[in-house]
Design brief:
Belongs to the sigma-70 factor family. ECF subfamily. This protein is mainly α and 175 residues long. It is built from nine helices and two strands, in the order ββααααααααα. A hairpin with a 5-residue loop joins β1 (2-3) and β2 (9-10).
Length: 175
């Protein structure tokens, strides 16, 4: 027996536990790859799972399903990583440099104000149609259903609204 960090005696792992854990590696890898989709991340996940199972082997009840126990460890670790890394993203090579460059944004606010003023000049039904289809991302069918009009009417409102919006925003193109 060896001593752990707390000074308590830790019994060596049984050969059965080691053999059963090693036999599950291919299934753990397949499950991990299915969860994360990236082989290198899946291998890291399996390695962490095996380490956690190894250190927690005292909590494993012999005679129960080691497969279910280790898959639970893997899944919980994966979900914890997802929660922890929710705000982190992986950058492609070269993207970081492009991200560090800040482009001028002064004109964007002015363009948005121009667009808002132009939208306010449109008739209500055309503005509503453009906002649903253009900004809201609804299909013509969904927008027509929301407004309670036939799909042809919705398509017409969007087309006419876009044309009128273009005339308001680019008056020199139509002079």
């Amino acid at each position: 027996m060896s001593e752990g960090e707390s000074g308590a005696a830790i019994s060596p792992p049984s050969d059965t536990f080691r053999r059963d854990l090693m036999a599950l590696l291919p299934q753990l890898r397949a499950f991990a790859r299915g969860l994360c989709g990236r082989p290198e991340q899946a291998d890291d996940l399996v390695q962490e799972t095996v380490m956690r199972a190894w250190t927690a082997q005292g909590s494993f009840t012999p005679g129960t399903s080691m497969k279910a126990w280790t898959f639970t460890i893997l899944r919980n670790h994966f979900l914890n990583d997802l929660r922890k890394n929710r705000r982190q993203t992986q950058l492609e090579p070269g993207v970081a440099e492009a991200t560090l460059v800040d482009r001028a944004t002064q004109e964007e606010g002015l363009h948005m104000q121009d667009l808002q003023r132009a939208l306010a000049q449109l008739p209500e039904e055309r503005r509503e149609a453009l906002l649903l289809v253009g900004a809201g991302g609804f299909s013509y069918e969904e927008a027509a259903s929301i407004c309670g009009v036939p799909i042809g009417t919705m398509k017409s409102r969007v087309a006419r609204g876009r044309g009128q919006l273009h005339q308001i925003l680019e008056p020199s193109a139509h002079d």
